[in-house]
Each structure stands twice: as structure tokens, then as C-alpha cells.
Amino acid sequence: MIYPNLEALIDDTAADVAAAIRDAQRSGDGRARVVLTGGTAGIALLRRLRTEAIDWANVDVFFGDERNVPVDHPESNEGQAREALLDHVDIPEANIHGYGLDGGPMDAAVARYEAALAEFAPDGFDLHLLGMGGEGHINSLFPHTSAVREHDAMVVTVTDSPKPPAERATLTLPAVQSADRVWLLVSGAEKAEAASHAGDGVTAAQDWPVAGAVGRKETVLRITDDAAGPLN
Question: What pTM does this model have?
Fold first, then answer.
């Protein structure tokens, strides 16, 4: 889906997120399991979702990745999501599944997050929202790293992120691929080359991690015209 600008992308996507949540809640156990993303487009979307009619009491929220900082740190993805959306809607605290990082050792937090996924999203996610960097990274899965090559674990630590801060925890490609719907939100001309590799498949993911972002039922690239490049 190509949009003329970021505002149009956000407006359309917000309505579709609300509809996807309602669809998920009408099936299965009545709950929706959604992975949030940060970045310019991601945070703009979260702010816009405040105005949508969503039954937040039956939504479990997860995060694609997190920096190794406390939640009240300005760089915390969870903290930014709370400020943009979660502090403004009627969602129970127990429904917000953060990594619990605090700047110290990360292994125990990653183990707890894997346990939380097994408990609260045992069959995967209904919707995984993703941003993308100019080199094609998604979550904290960067090209030519051990994290992007992970085939088994759902969550791993990252200690050498090329984008500061170096220490992070992230969902892996197997976790992304456990989502029924994967929606990529991409804006900016500098991302055009990477965006052209979306949908290339897992074999291309080491060079372009976005290529491995594939949903079980649906994979949608939601992109602004300036980032579409050869996709136009």
C-alpha cells in the first residue's frame, strides 16, 4: 500500500489496526495479541490509536525490541509507547508485557520474556507492527548479525547493535513469523532500497532483515510515496 504522505499512512493504518484487533477478539479466546513498534511512524500511529474504538481490556501488548534502559529512560521503547498511547487508554497493567530491562545483565530478562510469550501468546501474535531502518533492520535485527540468523529462540540479547545503544533485547525472525499479520510501516526516501527487499524471503534476511518479516496469513508493506522508489 503506497500513501502520499505519513499522515495518510497513519490514518489508514490506525483504522485497520482497530479492525484487526476486533477481528482477533471475535475469534479464539476473545483476546488480541499485538506487538507494537517505535520510530517516527510507529509512535505517530500509537498517538493516533488513542482515538480508535478498541476494547483494550482484551488486548495483550508486546514490544518488538527494547534498549537496555529502565522504562522511565527517554530511549525506552516501552516508555515511549506508554507516553504515546498506553497511559491514555483503559488497558490493564497486566496486559502490558515489557522486557523489564534496567541497564544491567539482560539474560534473565530475556528468559522471563520468553516465558511471558509462552504464557500470554502461546500460539503467536495476531498482529506484529514493524518499522524499518535504512539498512533494512527490523526490531533490533541488523544485517549480518547473530540475532538475525537466529532460527530457534523467540527472544535474544543484542550486545553489539550498530545503532546506539549497543545493548538491547529483541524478538527474532521466528517470533515475527509467528504473527498472523505482519505490517511494515515505512517512510522516507533513504529507505527505498531496503523497502524493495521486503518480501524477498528468509534466505535474503541476513543482508536485508526486512526480507524475513513474513506473517502466517498476511504481510503488508505500508509505505509512503517517497520511500516507494522502484515499487511505484
Answer: 0.96
Query: How many Cβ atoms are within 10 Å of 204's Cβ, its own excluded?
Result: 16
pLDDT digits (tens, 9 = 90+) for 54-85: 999 999 999 999 999 999 999 999 999 999 99
DSSP string, the chain: -EESSHHHHHHHHHHHHHHHHHHHHTSTTS-EEEEE--HHHHHHHHHHHTTS---GGGEEEEESEEESS-TTSTT-HHHHHHHHTGGGS---GGGB------SS--HHHHHHHHHHHHHH-TT--SEEEE---TT--BTTB-TTSTTTT--S-SEEEES--SSSSS-EEEE-HHHHTTSSEEEEEE-SGGGHHHHTTTTS-GGGTTT-GGGG---SSEEEEEEEHHHHGGG-
Tens digit of each residue's pLDDT (9 = 90 or more) over 170-181: 999 999 999 999
